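Journal club prep — side note

Before the paper discussion, L.F. wants everyone to see what a predicted structure for a comparable chain looks like in token form. Sequence:
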Amino acid sequence: MKTEYRLLIGALKVFHDFTDNQTKRVFTYNYNAPGFSELLAKYPIQEVAGNGSEIEKALNLLNWCSKNVLHGGDAKDVEFIPKTSLDILNYAYQKGRENGVYCRLQAIVFTECCLALGIKSRILHCLPFSPYDFDTHVVSIVWTDSLKKWIMLDPGNHRYFMDENHTILSPMEIRERLANDEYLKCNVQDDNYQYYMAKNLFYFKSLQNNTFGSDLCDGQETIYCIPKGFNVLERETAYCEYAIKNCPPHLVSDWERALDEFKKRTGFIHMSADLFFA
């Protein structure tokens, strides 16, 4: 694994420039969507978060979400669950791995719990370089006024990275430290997690509008943050072609539709890291 890890952080080192900017988009955050009132009424989110700082509240929610909405691996198809925190909690809350879900749904729960309490948060898709890698990862980022930056929190694994001073790091800070083979401390000692994120922090994407049921909102835009010189359209097209050849037969038509959509595109909306994580 050591050789593979060196290759992964080497790719982060070579593709380090995120200054390329296509156009500016403004991310929006709606803290007053109707679904949040029902979420707060049904689940003890305010009590769990407590009355501490925004970071303390976020860490309390991270712990609660990670313990009560478990990861289910790939054993069960849960695509029937509407992608809202309330629907996911209704299915998975305190029901063990039998009703486990995958990382994106765990991130939806945590992110929407934060938004319901007025904590600025959004879902972050972390993606690998290789188009032959089915395993991507989804986490959450939370804005902290005290640190004047986004911090990356992973509700699927109950993990986050810190520096030498125990300050929680942003996605780009983690990526840079990995690329330079510098000090990183995980809240739980886990070398496999550092390897896993070295693989999945090559580029990023987020939805533009963040609210209750963001995935279900009409007119959503996906905003990318990609290193300069990386052809994301070529990568996504190759990914679909690989999936068609290697996925279960009942999913082939879905990947064929996705491939057709990518072939119609001429590009993606992408922003520099400074703007994407502003």
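L.F.'s comment for the group: The first strand starts at residue 28 and ends at 29. Keep this in mind when we get to the figures.
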